[in-house]
Structure formats: structure tokens, C-alpha cells
Amino acid sequence: MLFSRFFAPTLKEAPADAEVVSHKLLLRAGMIRRLTSGVYSYLPLALRSLGKISDIVREEMGKGGAVELLMPTAQPAELWQESGRWDHYGKELLRFKDRHDRDCCLGPTHEEVITDLVRRDVKSYRQLPVNLFQIQTKFRDEIRPRFGLMRGREFIMKDAYSFDRNDAGAEQSYKDMFDAYTRAFERLGLRFRSVEADSGSIGGSFSHEFMVLANTGEDVIAACTSCSYAANTERAIVRWDGVKSEAVPPAHETRATPNAHTVEEVAAFLNVPASSIIKTMLLDVDGKAVAALVRGDRELNIPKVKTLLGADTAELASAEQVTVWSGAPVGFAGPVALNVETVVADLELQAGPPAGGGWVTGANKGDAHHVNVWLDRDAKVTRYADIRVITDGDCCAKCGGQMEFPRGIEVGHVFKLGTKYSAPMRCVFLDENGKEQPMVMGCYGIGISRVLAACIEQNHDENGIVFPPPIAPFDLMLLNLDAKDEAISARAKELHDLFEAMGIQTLLDDREERPGVKFKDADLIGIPMQIVLGGKSLARGVIEAKDRRSGEKVELPAEGFAEAFAAWRTKVYQGWGLNV
Ligand code: ATP
Ligand code: MG
Fold this sequence. Notes:
With 580 residues, the chain is α+β, with helices and mostly antiparallel strands. The protein contains 14 helices and 32 strands. Strands 3, 7, 8, 9, 10, 11, 12, 21, 22 and 25 form a ten-stranded mixed beta sheet that branches. A five-stranded mixed beta sheet has the order 16-14-15-17-20. It binds adenosine-5'-triphosphate and magnesium ion (MG). Adenosine-5'-triphosphate (ATP) binds at residues 109, 140, 142, 151-152, 155, 157, 410-413, 445, 447, 449-450.
């Protein structure tokens, strides 16, 4: 491919509204252009990378037993009303009316359409399992589209849906997809981790997220350094190995703590460590008051409380609710004589504070706290449970190993749906005994366009993108430094054709630009192998080669170039841990 005939409008500077590095580099490398908020055109370079990502995902899905189809983007409201999601999906669902005034939407995901498709044609256990996938444009009217391809409103997703006769079958489909994802992300050359995305008990998890590891990732992962346990930090299980403390402190007393609302203020005022204070958080759980107690230096994990109580909703109570439920302004709630039926306390509160003595808690009246509180004696705790966010120093819940907290970007999600859609939408089959059963479903998504952004977040340097070979738009960039020189241009064309004949996708920079511009653009676009043709080096009988990843430059002999090049190429790929 000739750069002069290609369309890769590179930029010196990124537009000011581009915040993250992938967004900046995708714009600067001439890979994407914004049409409107969260909606981008994929320019030729990006499209080539997206094609490669799609091909690898497609192949691995196929090996995992899934078959490709393509469903419509515009969908009728009726199906969404049947599943119940028309009323629940909220504003992310872009709705519109057609000329007959019928409600429609743009698909943000395709559970309804696929369930409708399968229920019409699959009637017997003999036709199951079925696993279908597509690679298609999705639309989600995200509240904050940002970071370029990372969180768009229109984006490309691979979505797959499995239908099985029973739970055992569904579990096998889930496992096949989990394995397919693992293979796909390995082949894409990305460093990633699959994490449990379910706060339920260990082993009972039915949802995993695939995270590309990058310092700029939005999510923090809690990952064991000894075993395979990894989970989203907000969901990671915290284990408590402490012992119940026996040294009961003297009776609790009330202290005036004027204007001390926060843990820091109370700790400073009473001169105690934050770990001696109990934070009492009042929550509105399905409309009822619940008190959740955690140590002052810990963070409450509200989703854990929600799961623990089997609730539909759980959120922090409003200031008014706090005042009514605790009888005090915000900042002074405490478990002693608290008029709230359900009080859940974090596991570690079974022991006393690490510094000894009793706890400091709010006194349920303004500007006052209690000291020497002992929960067993002074409060009514309904239940001790793991309700806090994991933090530095916590051990692995599975093996007790040391945890680390890398950042990541969610690129894929596998999910066991059960009969959530098949039951209300009557997607049923007749089993061996002629009995009607709902199919057991799973759904599996990969953000194809987000993978491209995540790949760049993980692989870049100060000069631009550093594409892993499997995702790179081309394998090799050939720089002709003397495009006006006919002999050199002829040699460049010859090399270009040689590479193409070897199956190496080559972008020949034949533009009449200064060498400096070409070097900069080559680094910016980040194609893994660079070959530089210039009058001076050719006169010395050599051709320069640069490994974009390591930055290492070598001179290959112009005579016998093909063999020398093949050996060098092997080395470049080995640097990525890949075979040619
Ligand atoms: P997020 O929590 O990031 O919004 P999600 O849980 O809504 O993601 P899923 O519904 O599981 O995402 O979608 C499957 C995959 O699609 C995600 O793992 C992600 O890679 C991708 N994806 C989701 N929303 C977007 C978006 N707005 N822009 C780009 N990719 C997205
Ligand atoms: Mg989302």
C-alpha cells in the first residue's frame, strides 16, 4: 500500500478535548475522527486493526462452538416490553418512533432479538445447544461518552448468546466461551487478566470480566500473586482470620465532639487512630433503614450489603433519612441504642480495635461520640459479614496469598443468564420426556473497538503507538527517504513487492516529505517493523531496520537482504513473545 494513495491524516498535536493517551494517539495517528459526541468514523488504519481483532475473535469463537450471524440494529419495542427491559433500561436505550408511530430502539445488546429468533425455530432438545454470535455496531446513549473509543455511544461489539437444555449444559457453554476469550486475548498479544465479577461465594461465580492491564485503566483489580484468584476491587472477597477479642473495656462514655463529623476530624479531636473508630453508615435498602458498620479506615462496599440482604436496591440514605433514622445530623450515627432493625457489621469488628480498648462511635446526637464501645455488650448487631472494600494488606480469600492491585480496562464479559430472558419470552423446548422447559442462556461480549483503545493504552511510548504485531494495521512500514529519486523509488517498490509476496502487509511511505516527518509518523502509527531506504545508506550497501517496540536499529546488507531480513523479523517477533 502506498502512503500517498492511503488515507492516514496524521496530526502534530491532539485536540484539547482528548484526555487519555489512546484517544490522543488514535486521533493523531489519523485512525479515527469524531462525528459527534461518542460517535467516530474509523479511518483505514483503524479499520485494518479492527478487522484483525475481529478475525481472531471470530476464529476463537468458532473453535468454542459458536456460529456467526448478523442481527438488525433497529429493533421493535414489543420485544423489549416482553422481556420487561423497555421500562428498566433507562436512557442508555436510544428510542425513536417510525413513520407509523411505532416505538423502536437501536440495539445496545441483543438478548431480546436472539431469544425471539431462537424460540421461533428451536423446539426440541435435539436442536440444543445453540450458540450464536455477531460482530456488529451497538448504540448506547452513555451519560458520559468519553476517552474516544473507550466509552463511545456507537461502538463495535462481538456478542454471543448460548442456549442449553439445562444448567450443566449452560455451564459447559460458559466454560467454552471463557476458554475462547482466553485464547483470543492471548493471540491478540495483550496482557490481561480474567476476574470474577460476582460478589457471591467463591466457586459460585457466574460472571467474569476480561481486563486488559494498563496503568490508565478505569477499574482496579484485586489479584492474588500466588493463585489465579482475581476480582474487581469492589467485588473482591475480604477474608478475616482474626480472633474474637476477650478484653472487654470499661463501660462506654459520651464525649463532646463539636463539629467533628468525619472520621479524620473525630480521630484528631479525640486523638485516636481511625482504626479505633466505627463508621456507621445508614443505607436505604429497598426503602428500609439498614445500618452498616465498618472500621474508620475502611471503605464500605454497598453492593456487598445489597447481595447479603438479597435486596433489589441499596444506596446511601439521604441527609433527611439519616436525621430521622439516627435522630442526629449526618456524621453522628452510631450503633449504641440505634433505632434501626437491621445492623450489619464488618467481620473484623468482632475483634476490638487494633490499638486496644473499645471503639469510638457516633452517639446518635449532634456533636457527640461514645468511647469504650463494645459491640457485643452495647449494641445489637444483626449479622457480621464481609461488607468492606478490599485494600492493601488484605490476603487472598482463596489461598491467603499476597494481593496486588493492578489497573485494567474491561474488554470482555462472560455472563450466565439462566432463564432471565427465556422464561418471560417463552423461549422453550420439549425435553426427552416431552415436557416443556425454558432454555438456559448465557451471553458473552467483547468490545472490539474498545480492545483497540485498550491495546494502545497498554502499548505506547512518548513517540506514539507501539502496536503488538497481531493488531497492527500493517506488519511493516517502509520509509523511502528520497521519494524524488527514481532509482531509490524503484528499489522501494521492489522491496514493497517482495514483502507483500512474503505475506507481509507493507505500508510504503512514498510521500514527498522530509525524512523527519516520515520518521515521526512511522513512530506515531506504531507499525512493528520499520525499514528505511535512503540514498546514503544504500551507497554503503546497507538498509536500515528498526524495531518499533525496542527502538533497536540494525543495518541489514542490501546484498542478500531477504535472509538477513527474515532473521531480524524473527527477532522482532520474539521480543513480543511471538513466533513469526
Ligand atoms: P461498562 O461497565 O464499561 O459500561 P458494560 O458492563 O456495560 O461495560 P457489557 O454490557 O458487558 O458492558 O458489554 C460488553 C463489552 O462491550 C464490554 O466488556 C466492553 O468491552 C464493551 N463496551 C460496553 N460499553 C461500551 C462503550 N460505551 N464503548 C465501547 N465499548 C463498550
Ligand atoms: Mg455500560
